[in-house]
Amino acid sequence: MAQYQDVRTGVGIRSAEIDAGLRAHMNKVYGTMSVGMVITALAAWAISGLTMTDSPTQYMVREGQFLTDFGYALYASPLRWVVMFLPLVMVFAFGAMINRLSAAAAQLFFYVFATAMGVSISWIFLTFTDFSIVQVFLITAIAFAGLSLWGYTTKKDISGWGSFLIMGVIGLIVASIVNIFVQSDMMMFAISVLGVLIFAGLTAYDTQNIKNTYIAHAAHGDREWLGKAAIMGALNLYLDFINMFMFLLQLLGNRE
Prior knowledge:
Blueprint: H1 2-50, E1 52-53, E2 59-62, E3 65-67, H2 69-75, H3 79-97, H4 103-120, H5 124-127, H6 130-153, H7 161-182, H8 185-217, H9 223-252
Antiparallel strand pairs: 1-3, 2-3
Helix pairs in contact: 1-4, 1-8, 1-9, 3-4, 4-9, 6-8, 6-9, 7-8, 8-9
């Protein structure tokens, strides 16, 4: 009987340790993601401020505002393709290098990626009103918080969503590239609606996956691996948020 009580006590202590570790792990994931979001917002805002001037140069943005030479290179020259696809290339590179990077190096890479993403999406400040950007950001934040909370707390196993959602993301990338050349408003609307739904699902899926991954590996006590897993989880949730925000902005944003 005493041995049985000892076993129960040991299991309870271990369970409590895992719960405390999981909370710390999730706090690191959300904290890293939040810092990345701030870096992205600051980079996008700073770059957009460098692209317009009241003195006519080469390209008019709107009445009385023109692109600077830097802005022209960024948005109206072939360099825009580099700026547009650099974050995508960095995501694939990060996935390929994550096992060789230390946790500190992975975190630094994530922050560099967040900066590149800010430069890549800085055009939204030239296209949409500041009020609508803030409004859509708040809508996205509320939706993201609710979806992530559901993914964390639900007892339903949604791991089966993964392959379907990843296929949807690949389809979105292909359709978005095609629409760069087609320039169809109806196609853009359909892509945006599907994008919101797919990344809403990914938000819940990724949150549950981060939780389950930690629980499965916590017993091994590999702090370095868990540190890198937290960075990778932060990157996944960051991408879910950014993409959901961008698609909602296409649907709800007021253009200048």
